[in-house]
Specification:
It is a single chain. By secondary structure, this protein is of the alpha/beta class. The longest helix has about 50 residues. The strands form two sheets. The chain has a six-stranded mixed β-sheet, with helices on both faces. It has a four-stranded antiparallel β-sheet with strand order 2-1-4-5, with helices on one face. The chain contains 20 helices and ten strands.
Length: about 575
């Protein structure tokens, strides 16, 4: 979660207004049905309190057996009607809650996925997903609380106060005296809950991250005997989240005992008052029984209102941060609206420099030119700037200084969609959807014909292992390719890239999981398939040098060599130190 101050009461109010404005107009049918059920619940709850007057006066005081049957039928009808409306209201609350939660979860995920690359640096994917899940749930709970749960309790409370007022106006007014005390209590607790709720999203993200990273890397965890470390890290995250939840629980739970005490105080005074009125002025027991019943029934919605209000602050706090996420525009990366000519795969860097925020320069005055059909290896030590250079070509960042040209066009003038279609990126960290092998390959070009798919499959040697599966290309790869080996995943990724038919291909250690024989076969097929395309290999493997025309050597963000492999070996000390003697 982005670092911002704890939202104020005014922020919470603005957030509530925005939530209602964005969600209610599109859900009028649910809201209308819910209001009908709310009115039904409140009316029949008040009616149930009023029936106690009939029970005491018409049945017990009057000793009328006939009236007992009539009153019993009324009580049964009122109870059934209240239960029916209560059931309908509960179902509609769930529908409303999930509808709003899913809407904002989709919105938050979409906005997150469209953020700039730097937004994801240093933050686990589980943190983002925990945040998205929690934000959506908070928005649904907030709207449901305001428009359904809160309103139901308020209507019920008003209806019961009407019953109380009809029985004894003086005691009803006395009961209302405690309302300012309740408001003061709720206001105090609301401020506390906004503070503690601020940290819950981050802690939830750490909880998911600690668990998922251990399970995702279970082979490494077990081979290095890291079970204890992983368990301790997870336990620490759970304990931190538990402490925060406990802090929230202490605040929200405080409303119940205080309301109990205030209710008991009013009831005690009323018993004395009712005895005096009955003895002195001859009022009927039924009137006071109805009043006490209405008061006791009113205690429950009053208690729920105070607790709901405190819980609402937590939901509004998280919804406030959700809107911060949704409203934040991606950091500016200069894009234009011009189209690239198909097949123009030249890449030109002219005095290009770039540095990350609060970081030293990663690329420093880099200049080079690649022509269509060039095959180039980019090499250098870790941190030399290889990945940054690739990110600049992909348009993930805009250079601080200098100019990058794709074809004859400044990269900043090219439309994002055109740039993405023009470049195929195949990474060593292969990502695959939990779908079939064929569907993952088709992500390169959804409109590809079966012949084109088969050609890509053969060039990437995917058929070499797919034939071993009973379902062939229709075999599901599992979550992120978990059913495939590392080398098999890389071959699927290469086939996906080939199907894209781009003008520029970037292979970032894309054959690192392949054995020598498979790598040789695939590289031979690649060069045959990509004769006229510009191909860039980011690599630490000298075996790839036999397939490239030139090697671009980076050292601390600067080019220290750019020539044929045999020549750069002779002229660059850094190259010889990195790769030793070439065979």
């Amino acid at each position: 979660m982005e670092s911002v101050n704890t939202p104020t009461g005014d922020d919470a109010l603005k957030t509530a207004k925005r939530l209602i404005k964005e969600t209610i107009p599109n859900r009028k049918k649910i809201i209308t049905a819910s209001i009908l059920c709310m009115v039904g619940v409140s009316v029949f709850t008040a009616a149930l309190a009023y029936t106690t007057k009939l029970i005491v006066n018409d049945v017990f005081v009057a000793k009328d057996a006939g009236a007992a049957i009539e009153v019993a039928i009324i009580v049964i009808f009122v109870s059934f009607s209240k239960s029916l409306f209560h059931y309908g209201n509960a179902v509609l609350q769930t529908v409303l809650n999930r509808s709003i939660s899913s809407f904002y979860q989709k919105e938050a995920f979409q906005k997150t996925l469209r953020r700039e690359i730097s937004f994801f640096n240093g933050k686990h994917a589980s943190d983002h997903m925990a945040q998205i899940r929690l934000y959506g749930m908070a928005a649904g709970q907030a709207v449901t609380a305001v428009c359904s749960r809160f309103l139901t309790e308020v209507l019920t409370l008003v209806a019961l106060f009407v019953v109380m007022f009809l029985q004894d106006a003086l005691m009803t007014l006395y009961s209302i005296v405690i309302i300012p005390i309740i408001f003061g209590l709720v206001s105090f607790l609301s401020r506390k809950i906004r503070k503690v709720a601020k940290e819950e999203t981050d802690l939830s993200g750490h909880y998911f991250a600690a668990g998922s990273e251990a399970l995702a890397g279970v082979r490494t965890v077990k081979s290095y005997n890291l079970e204890r470390k992983s368990i301790e890290k997870f336990n620490s995250s759970v304990d931190a989240l538990e402490d925060r939840i406990f802090g929230i629980s202490k605040v929200t739970a405080a409303t119940h005992p205080i309301m109990e005490f205030l209710g008991g105080l009013v009831l005690g005074v009323f018993v004395i008052y009712a005895a005096w009125q009955t003895i002195t002025y001859g009022k009927t027991p039924g009137e006071f029984t109805a009043f006490i019943t209405a008061f006791l029934l009113a205690y429950q919605p009053a208690s729920k209102i105070s607790k709901l209000w405190v819980e609402l602050q937590k939901s509004l706090t998280q919804s406030f941060f959700m809107f911060r996420l949704i409203d934040t525009k991606p950091q500016s990366v200069s894009y234009g609206n011009k189209s690239l000519q198909s097949g123009n795969g030249s890449v030109t860097f002219s005095d290009v420099s770039f540095g990350y925020e609060n970081d030293e320069v990663s690329i420093d005055k880099v200049s080079f030119n690649l022509q269509p059909g060039d095959k180039v290896a980019i090499v250098g030590k870790s941190g030399a700037g290889k990945s940054t250079l690739v990110d600049l070509i992909l348009g993930f960042y805009s250079p601080t200084d200098g100019m990058i040209e794709i074809g004859t066009m400044d990269i900043s003038s090219i439309s994002p969609m055109d740039l993405k279609n023009h470049i195929a990126f195949i990474s060593q960290d292969v990502f695959l959807f939990d779908d079939t092998i064929e569907e993952n390959i088709k992500d390169g070009f959804a409109g590809a014909s079966q012949e084109e798919i088969i050609a890509a499959v053969k060039s990437a040697q995917v058929d070499g292992f797919a034939e071993d599966f009973p379902l062939g290309l229709q075999t599901r790869v599992g979550a992120n390719g978990s059913n495939l080996s590392g080398g098999q995943k890389q071959r699927v990724a290469i086939a996906r890239g080939l199907l894209k038919k781009a003008s520029i291909y970037i292979f970032d250690e894309a054959t690192s999981a392949l054995d020598v024989e498979n790598e040789r076969e695939i590289m031979t097929a690649l060069l045959k398939t990509l004769k006229n395309e510009t191909v860039i290999f980011v690599t630490h493997r000298p075996a790839l040098f036999e397939y490239v025309d030139k090697v671009l050597m980076l050292e601390k963000g600067r080019i220290v060599g750019f020539d044929r492999p045999s020549k750069i070996y002779k002229t660059s000390t850094e190259f010889r130190e990195l790769f030793g003697v070439l065979q």
